[in-house]
Write a structure and sequence with these properties.
The structure holds two protein chains of two kinds. Chain A is an alpha/beta fold. Chain A has a single domain (2-299), classed as P-loop containing nucleotide triphosphate hydrolases (Rossmann fold, 3-Layer(aba) Sandwich), CATH 3.40.50. Chain A has helices spanning 14-26, 44-47, 51-56, 62-66, 78-81, 113-129, 143-153, 172-183, 188-194, 199-204, 226-245, 261-265, 272-276, 283-295, and strands at 2-7, 32-37, 76-77, 97-100, 132-139, 162-169, 206-213, 253-258. An eight-stranded mixed beta sheet of chain A has the order 3-4-2-5-1-6-7-8, sandwiched between helices. In chain A, β7 (206-213), α11 and β8 form a beta-alpha-beta unit. In chain A, α1 crosses α14 and α6 crosses α7 (143-153). The longest helix of chain A is centred in the C-terminal third of the chain and has 20 residues, at 226-245. The mean pLDDT of chain A is 89. By secondary structure, chain B is of the alpha+beta class. Chain B folds into two domains: 19-236, no CATH class; 244-329, no CATH class. Chain B is built from nine helices and ten strands. In chain B, β5 (84-96) and β6 (100-109) form a beta hairpin. Classes of the chains: A alpha/beta, B alpha+beta.
C-alpha cells in the first residue's frame, strides 16, 4: 500500500508524524519503508537519527534515482544504522524499517515521462516487498506531488492501493490552506483528475490528520485561568465548525496528534521508553501515532463518507 | 539499455575463458497463482523470433533467450586501478514452477584487449565478452566485483542490468500483481576462475554478506559460461527459498505465539514454497561435486529440511490440540 504524506504549509509536523507512523507500524511486525520525497529539504535522516545518511547520500539518493543516474536508490536499514539508543537493537517482532533518503542538496527537478516511469517502477518494486510504502512529500503544490499523481495514474499501478494523508495544524489558516491543497486550484483533486485519476476514487482516498492540537483537557493546560479555558474551548468549537465547512470534518479526519513539548523541541521518533521510563514524551502522543499507524489499513476508516 | 542486438552466429568466442563474473537476482513473481506454461512462454519472449526454452522435469522451468547489453565503462577493481572494459554482457530471465523469477547476467572477461576501442562489430562477434584495456589481474577484478557494493559507483554494474530486467518483467500486464505474500529480492554476486595447476583444487566459497546479498567464488577446472550461469541460478534460487522460508517462520511467531495464528501466517509458505526444493536438479554433471560441497557446508538442504520439519511438527500438534480444545469447550 502506498501512503502519501502531504501538507500545504511547513511546520505541520508532517515529516516527524509520518516517520513516527512508519515506526509504530513496523514495531508489531509490518515491513515498512519511508521515502523522503521532500526534495526541497530532505530531513528524514535527522528524524530517524541516521547520521551516515546525512553524510553519505551525495550520489545515490532518490533524486539521483529519479534522474536516472543510478539504477537503484540507496536504502538504509533503520534498526541497524540509527544512532538513537532507544531504537536499537531491533525489537523482537519488528518488521523491516527502511529509509530511502533524498540526496543532500538535491533540489526540485523537471518532470519528464522518464521520471514518472522510474517513479512508478520504484513504487511497484517496493510494493513487492513492503506492506506500507510511506512517501513524505514536500509542503505545498510541488513537483513531487505532481510526480506521484502521474505515476499512480499509470495502468500498472491501478491495482495498488494509494492513500493520502493531509497534515494541518489546528488553526484557521491551516484548515483553509489544507482544504485548498486538496479541493482548490491546482490541488490534489484537480491535478489528479487532469492526470487521469477517477475523481470519486481519488477523493475517497484522502484523509486529514490534525497535528499539534492543544487539548483543553491536557495536563499542560491545567493551570489555565477560567477565562483562558473558556476562550480555548470557544476557539476549538469555531475551528471544528470551520473544518466541517471546508470538508475536513471528523469523518474525513484519520487522527489527531496532540501538542507534545518533545516534538516542539526536537523532531524525533517517540519510543515507548520515552513515554514509560524517562517520561519525556506524553503517552497520548505515542498512542496517537499508534492509532494512526493502525488506521492506515483499517478499511472502515476509508469508506466513502457519502 | 537492455536491448536485443543483431543476430550473429558465425564467430564463436575463443575456447577456455579464464574469468567469468556474474550476478543473479531472484524474486517472487508478482502474480496470484503459478503462471501457466503458455503465459510463462509469452512473458519470457524477450527477443522476437527466438524460442523460450521450457522443461517439465523435475520441475517446470522456462528460460528466456539471451539478451546482450553493450558496455563501455571502468571495470570494478578492488585496488582502484583504472581499467576500462568494452564489450557485451549476456542476460537472461528464468522462471521456475511459474513462481520464482530470476534475472541472470554474466560477462566473460577476455585475457587482454587493446587499449583502443574497436568498431562494435568486433565486440558483437564475441557475445558476452568484455575486453579490458590493458593488463588486468584476475584476483583484483574478482575482489572488486564481489565487493561492488562498497566501491564508488560508475564501474561495470551487472546488478543494474539484472534489476532493470526484473523490473521490466514484474511490471508486465500479464501479471496481476497480487503475490500471495511479500518477500525480498536476493542478490548473488559470483565469480568463476580456472584452478591454477599446483594451487587449490576446484571449490566454492559461499558467503552471506547481509540480509539479501550473497557472494560466491568458484574455482573450476573448466569454466563453461552456460553451465556456470545455470549453476549460480540454481544456487540463488535455493538460497532465496531458504532465506524466505526462514524469514517467514521467524516472523510468524512459531513456537512463541500461542494458538493457530503462527501456522495461519505460514500458510503461503506451505501453499507456494515447500514443493519447490530441488537443489542441483539442473546442474551440469561437472559441477555436481561443487553442489555436494555446499550441501556439506553450509548445508542448504539440512537447514531447509529442519525448517520444513518444524512447520510440519507444529501443524501436527495443532491438528491434535485444536479438536481436544474444542471438545473441552463443549
Amino acid at each position: 500500500m502506498l501512503i502519501f504524506a502531504i501538507s500545504d504549509k511547513g511546520g505541520t509536523g508532517r515529516s516527524v508524524t509520518s516517520a513516527n507512523i512508519a515506526y509504530r507500524r513496523a514495531l508489531p511486525g509490518a515491513d515498512v519503508c519511508y521515502l523522503d520525497f521532500d526534495f526541497g529539504s530532505p530531513t528524514s535522516a535527522a528524524v530517524f537519527d541516521v547520521p551516515s545518511a546525512l553524510r553519505g547520500t551525495e550520489q545515490a539518493g532518490l533524486h539521483s534515482y529519479l534522474r536516472g543516474e543510478v539504477a537503484e536508490p540507496q536504502r538504509i536499514d533503520i534498526w541497524a544504522e540509527t544512532e538513537s539508543a532507544g531504537l536499537r537493537p531491533r525489537p523482537a517482532q519488528a518488521g523491516q524499517l527502511v529509509l530511502l533518503p533524498g540526496d543532500r542538496g538535491g533540489g526540485e527537478f523537471v518532470l519528464g515521462s522518464d521520471t514518472v516511469r522510474r517513479c512508478a517502477d520504484l513504487f511497484l518494486r517496493l510494493e513487492e516487498e513492503f506492506e506500507i510504502t510511506l512517501v513524505d512529500l514536500s509542503a505545498g503544490r510541488s513537483y513531487a506531488a505532481q510526480l506521484v499523481l502521474e505515476a499512480t495514474a499509470l495502468p500498472e499501478l491501478s491495482s495498488v492501493t494509494a492513500r493520502w494523508l493531509v497534515f494541518h495544524r489546528w488553526t484557521r489558516q491551516h484548515i483553509i490552506a489544507a482544504a485548498g491543497l486538496v479541493y482548490g486550484d491546482r490541488g490534489i483533486m484537480a491535478t489528479g483528475a487532469s492526470r487521469g485519476h477517477e475523481r470519486d476514487r481519488l477523493r475517497d482516498s484522502v484523509r486529514f490528520v490534525r497535528a499539534a492540537v492543544p487539548s483543553p483537557s491536557s495536563p499542560m493546560f491545567a493551570e489555565l485561568r477560567p477565562a483562558q479555558a473558556l476562550w480555548l474551548s470557544i476557539c476549538d468549537e469555531d475551528l471544528t465548525r470551520l473544518a466541517s465547512e471546508h470538508k475536513l470534518g471528523p469523518m474525513l479526519t484519520l487522527g489527531t496528534v496532540p501538542l507534545d513539548p518533545v516534538l516542539q523541541w526536537r523532531e524525533q521518533l517517540i519510543t515507548d521508553e520515552d513515554v514509560l521510563s524517562s517520561q519525556v514524551a506524553n503517552l497520548e502522543t505515542a498512542q496517537a501515532f499508534a492509532d494512526l499507524a493502525a488506521a492506515l489499513t483499517d478499511d472502515r476508516r476509508w469508506q466513502s463518507p457519502l | 539499455m537492455t536491448r536485443p542486438s543483431e543476430p550473429f552466429s558465425t564467430v564463436s568466442p575463443p575456447a577456455g575463458p579464464d574469468l567469468l563474473i556474474g550476478e543473479v537476482r531472484t524474486a517472487l513473481l508478482q502474480h496470484s497463482v503459478a503462471l501457466p506454461r503458455a503465459a510463462a512462454g509469452q512473458l519470457l519472449q524477450l527477443r522476437h523470433g527466438e524460442r523460450v526454452r521450457t522443461s517439465e522435469r523435475p520441475s517446470g522451468q522456462a528460460v528466456s533467450p539471451d539478451l546482450l547489453t553493450g558496455v563501455d565503462c571502468p571495470l570494478p577493481t578492488a585496488s582502484g586501478r583504472a581499467v576500462r572494459g568494452v564489450g557485451t554482457a549476456t542476460s537472461r530471465a528464468v522462471l521456475t514452477e511459474g513462481r520464482l523469477l530470476q534475472a541472470s547476467v554474466r560477462v566473460r572477461i577476455a585475457a587482454t584487449g587493446g587499449s583502443l576501442r574497436l568498431p562494435w562489430g568486433h565486440y558483437l562477434a564475441r557475445p558476452g565478452t568484455v575486453e579490458p584495456s590493458g593488463r588486468l589481474a584476475g584476483a583484483d577484478l574478482v575482489d572488486g566485483h564481489l565487493s561492488a557494493d562498497r566501491l564508488p559507483g560508475g564501474a561495470l554494474d551487472l546488478g543494474a542490468i539484472a534489476e532493470r530486467l526484473l523490473t521490466d518483467l514484474q511490471g508486465r500486464r500479464v501479471l496481476d500483481r497480487r503475490a500471495p505474500f511479500r518477500s525480498r529480492r536476493t542478490r548473488l554476486l559470483w565469480t568463476a576462475t580456472r584452478a591454477e595447476p599446483g594451487g587449490d583444487g576446484p571449490g566454492a566459497l559461499f558467503t552471506i554478506e547481509d540480509g539479501t546479498l550473497r557472494t560466491l567464488r568458484l574455482t573450476l577446472e573448466r569454466v563453461d559460461p552456460v553451465a556456470v550461469a545455470a549453476f549460480c541460478e540454481d544456487l540463488a534460487l535455493h538460497d532465496w527459498l531458504l532465506t524466505t522460508l526462514v524469514q517467514l517462520v521467524e516472523r510468524s511467531g512459531l513456537g512463541s505465539a500461542p494458538g493457530p495464528e503462527p501456522l495461519l501466517r505460514l500458510r503461503p509458505a506451505v501453499d507456494h514454497l515447500l514443493h519447490l526444493w530441488m537443489p542441483g536438479a539442473r546442474v551440469d554433471r561437472a559441477l555436481a561435486p561443487i553442489w555436494a560441497g555446499l550441501e556439506t557446508r553450509p548445508g542448504f538442504t539440512r537447514q531447509w529440511a529442519a525448517t520444513v520439519q518444524r512447520i510440519r511438527d507444529h501443524l501436527a500438534l495443532q491438528a491434535i490440540g485444536l479438536p481436544a480444545h474444542s471438545y473441552q469447550g463443549d
